[in-house]
């Protein structure tokens, strides 16, 4: 069994859903060394999340952002965690809904994503800053 782990820092991105598949793969050449295994991506933040979704049509990313903003609105009177700005508590809720890690099978040295699937960084803050990911690949 081979095990690889690496921490990746993504440059700050604006609020929204960002396709980061190529960026992650470029920083993880060790994927090619695994015939059959798993690839895990974990985000070390509580106001951004990860997801796998549509990789071809960018309107999907815009639609997701608009829907999440409507589903989890800013400025609700019942929010008590408000010291870091009006986008912070909604960002924590969105991150809790989507999650902080994804798993993708590795087959023949490549991520075995569906033809229309890609890895998303879901940035829920207006100015979230750089985002740190821990990637782990293991298998034979």
> How is the CATH topology named?
Jelly Rolls
CATH class membership? Mainly Beta
The strand line-up of the biggest sheet is 1-8-3-5-6
- In DSSP terms (H or I, runs of 4 or more residues), the helix count works out at 3
The count of β-strands is 8
Structural class assignment: alpha+beta
- What is the chains' assembly state? single chain
> What would you call the shape?
elongated
- Give the percentage of residues in beta strands: 35-45%
Unreliable sequence segments: none
Helicity, in percent?
10-25%
- Number of structural domains: 1
Order of helices and strands: EEHEEHHEEEE
Mean pLDDT equals 98
Q: Which architecture does the CATH hierarchy give at level 2?
A: Sandwich
Task: Characterize the largest beta sheet: strand count, sense, and whether it forms a barrel.
Answer: 5 strands, antiparallel
Distance between the termini: 5 Å
